[in-house]
Structure formats: C-alpha cells, structure tokens
Design brief:
The structure is a single chain. β1 (45-46) and β2 form a beta hairpin. By secondary structure, the protein is an alpha+beta fold. The protein has nine helices and ten strands. 32% of the residues are buried. Helices cover 28% and strands 11% of the residues.
Amino acid sequence: MAPLSTIPLPLPVNQPPPGYGWEERDMSVLSTTTAFDTGIEQRDTFLGQPRCIICGLAHSILLQHCHIIRDSELHIWSNLKARHWIPSQAKAHPRHEPRDGLLMCIHHHIMFDAYNFFIRFVPDTRKFVFVNYSNEPILQQFHGKAIALDIKDHYAPFPSLFILHEMRVRGFRPFEPIEPDMPDDGPWQDWITSDGVFDNVSDSFKRDSPPDNGDNNNDNSFSTQLQPQHQPTTTSTGDASSGKRRVTLNADVIAEILAATRVMPSWKACQMEGTSWTGTAQENIEKYVSSIGIDSPQR
C-alpha cells in the first residue's frame, strides 16, 4: 500500500494546503453537484446578491436550487441527449449540470414543481418568459414578463428543457385555455427594472456588487421583496388583441426553440467543457471543427 501523503505544517493562512485547492479547477472537471451549485450561483447573482430569477427575492434562507429535469429522471436526461435536445457532452447526470438548474425562492420553486406555471423561451425577443398557465391570482403579476436569465450566459439553461416542463404543465391542467395570451414585447419583470439590475447599454445583467455607499443595512432587500409588487393593468387571458401574442405549442414552435437552443453560447460552452483536449494542437483543432463547428463569419 502506498504511504499516505503528508501535509506540511504549519497550515497556510486563509487557504488550503498545496494540492487541496479548487480555485484552479475548471468547471469541466467538476462532475459533481459542485459544478451545479457553482454555475447557478455565478449566473443568478445580481448586484452581488443571489436572487430568485422570478420575483427577485434576495434572502438566502428562502432561496433554493431548482431542477428543470429532476435529478431522479436520468432516463429522460439520456433520451434528450440521444435526440440532440441537449449536447451529448452535457454532464452525465442532471443534478450535475448547471444548465438544468434555476435559482428560485421557496414559493416559486414549489409552484414550478407543482406545474402552476412554465417558462417559455421566445426566440425573436431572446428572452425567457413567465407563463401563468394555471391562472393563479398570486402569479398573475409575473405573467408575460421576462425572468432574469440571459441567453448569452455560458450557463444559461437549455430552452429545450423548458419544452418538457411546459408539456407537463399543460397535461397537468387540461381544462385551462390551450393558447393563453401574453404581451408581445415580453417586458422584464418589475423588479429587474425597478432595481436596475439590467444594463441596457451592454445588454446584460449587472452581476457585481455596487460601490459601498456606507449603508450596512442588508435587510432592505428582504423587506422590500415581501411587499406586494405592482399589479399589471391587463390580466385577461381572453382573445388576443393588439400588442399580444398567443402562447401556442406545436411542431413548428418546438423546432424553432430547438434551433435556437443549438446555437446558444451555453450549448457550445457545454460542448467545450465535456470534450477532452488532451491531443495535439492539430488533433484538437480537428476535434473542435467536427464536434462543435465553426461560426459563420458575421457580415
């Protein structure tokens, strides 16, 4: 038996012993729940605070990691790979893949798993939109508005996964209108605009903490999030009118979402992470071209 390695003493201050650190490890080698947790926490942080992507709640005690495809559904995960709905290089288990995860408050996590609402990716606006399919009054303020996910993020969820969840919501609630309507432009959720977490100039979310203004009261975000949010003036799900669109689901819609999924930065990032690059430079170039492809030059 090989002798156990020794740890030099005294231990380093504020860091683990040599060989025990994680800071130099890439996400591609973390095939554990660490990859899932780290990816979500990096992505769903706004102005330095992890927040529910639906309502913006920022209190850590009430935030939970949510799976789109549940961690017990390995057979479905494998089937999605075989059908090219997700990259074949995605993590072997859904519990390890951050692109299958969302950060939600406990309330929206429960209602997501209970099939009260679904999230629809809209290719022409490039936004993930909340659809209150159950017509729950408590959810109506979020209906038809885009949630805090950025399609350009390397850990953005695969839109194709939301198709399966949407099918389950529709099947679980067969007596609701088949084609609910929502605003055509897909405005952001109210808190995204009011809290200034999206930068219209860079077209991206503000992840970093704002400069310290000397206010050490960190409970403000919690108290304001529990207050009733602005109610939209139009909550009807009747006939579509000007400025609205129908939320349909058919073969053409699915094909459009799948096509958008396969050209997302997160799709290619997932392929990169799950591919071994131990060959020669030429071998790696050939592997990249064959498995990931080359973007067409933009004109």
